[in-house]
Write a structure and sequence with these properties.
The protein is α+β, with helices and mostly antiparallel strands. The chain has helices spanning about 60-75, 85; strands spanning about 15-20, 30, 45, 50-55, 90, 100-105, 105-110, 130-135. The chain is globular.
């Protein structure tokens, strides 16, 4: 059941992709999936075929936002894997929140444990990765 005012990040360990050399988190034996985060809730878009203005959110908004930042940085074809991890100081570190859904005072989803794989903290964490964009210098 989806609640329009419920918001949370997502996180997890890949079941197939090996942990890259630049990830050093302890509880995920494979690649932790989030490198960065983007605020992607309540974004208005106009779609004439869908009858006009819609409010969208989630990965469908966050992924194009991050792709656009890479495009603005202008060097995505030339940076090595792990580049973000060497430039984490150029991101806003998200230190609160997590991937437990809340709607008002009610918890509407809790599918994760209680450590950095589920909750934001200073530095790297699974729901928000290294943080959110502060311009293009980390990209």
């Amino acid at each position: 059941m989806e609640h329009p005012d419920a918001q949370a990040g997502a996180s997890g360990c890949s079941a197939w992709v090996p942990k890259p050399a630049w990830q050093h988190d302890a509880h995920c034996p494979m690649r932790t999936v989030a490198d960065v985060a983007a605020v992607a809730s309540g974004v208005p878009v106009y779609d004439q075929n869908a009858g006009g203005w819609l409010t969208v959110g989630g990965t469908s908004v966050a992924a194009p936002l991050i792709a656009a930042i890479y495009g603005l940085a202008g060097n995505a074809a030339h940076i090595p894997p792990g580049y973000l991890y060497r430039h984490a100081g150029s991101l806003f570190d998200v230190t609160v929140g997590g991937n437990v859904l809340h709607s008002g005072r009610q918890t509407v989803g809790n599918t994760c444990g209680g450590d950095y794989l589920c909750h934001a903290k200073p530095g790297y964490d699974a729901p928000t990765g290294l943080g959110t964009s502060d311009g293009t210098s980390a990209f």
